[in-house]
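W.,

You were right to be curious about this one. When I first looked at the sequence I had no strong expectations either way, so I just let the prediction run and decided to look at it fresh. Below is the sequence, 420 residues in total, followed by the output.
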Amino acid sequence: MEKERSYICIDLKSFYASVECVERGLDVMTTRLVVADPTRSDKTICLAVSPALKALGIPGRCRVFEIPKHIDYIMAPPRMQKYLDYSAEVYAIYLKYISKDDIHVYSVDEAFMDVTDYLSLYQMSARELGQRIISDIHETLGLRATCGIGTNLFLTKVALDITAKHSPDFIGELDEKTYRETLWDHKPLTDFWRVGKGIANRLATYGMLTMRDIAYGDEDLLYKLFGVNAELLIDHAWGREPVSIQDIRSYESQSHSLTQGQVLMSDYTFEKGLVIAKEMMDVMCLDLVDKELVSKSFTLMVGYAKSAPLPSAKGTFSLDTPTNASSILIPKIAELYTQIVNPAYLVRRMYVVCNGVTNEEYMQYSFFMPAEDLEKNRKVQKAVLEIKNKFGKNAILKGLNFEEGATTRERNNQIGGHKA
């Protein structure tokens, strides 16, 4: 029989805000600080709110205008590269204790670790090891962290999200027994990992308001409501989770895709939206070339502004031969855009997806372009990549990037849609 596993999950408290406090030499726990771009309107979302502001009832992902006017606080412009640098330093601390093979990075500020085989090595309990790691993070970088401990990944995340908040040392610990004893009747359901408002509302319609209700609920009804996902919901209701970190690391998707997406800063006309579609496909083509991938199926999704009577438009074009040639794909995405988008509606969001990407063969053939023209296009793309990699993304640009409404120049200085 396999021995019981021990997992820990560490979360960096108010990560972006904490980094900004540390950089300013301020106390993370007492400083009132939000991370938000002051150059945008007061409707912009705060990327992080410090614990001192959260203690005043300010939610973590509020908009700037939602912070009461009488509260004084520091607004720190986002510095995404700085946060990634700190995240890398935190990961280096994890590696002092745990092999990378037993770590699953869940997000920039959160990571799971399978510590089963390390407890006897260090002669520590999981709680003692978790405390050692979060103390090391604070002593080395000045960042505060919380820790969840569990016998599977689900219980570890729940211990982090719910139990640790009420623990004096910010460490929560659960197994299946203590989970059922302490959290089976916990409300709201949305506090639990992977239970969103939509799922909770559908369950509430049938009187299921707690994990206990789900555990003893009608399984046929649950499968009718959620399909195969009901199995996961039922497992979690009982505190079970069959997936391990090793399962995650060994998983390989049967199909692969690449996506480019952006939410525009204002509503765009049909013509300006067309510029965005071509820019995004141009960036996508360079990404494909850089990764030595090709595709023959591309999807465009355009989200309209709130004033439009329809939410979005979507379409796909397919080619006979996989390619990453911008000289083929930019005209094709422009053609698709004009086919699916209503010129009378304003545009606010856009996504380009390369479906089913495959490894590139050196010589590409196409009915749309002679082989020698394809080879010339490929050499140009390779040269552009070399220049961008050496001198920066804005070192070489196209005339397209200077048309009205173009965003690539600004986005090249961003990470995740925010200032780098």
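Here's what jumped out at me. The radius of gyration is 25 Å. And, maybe more interesting for your project: The chain has three domains: 1-172, 184-248, 258-419.

Coffee later to discuss?

I.
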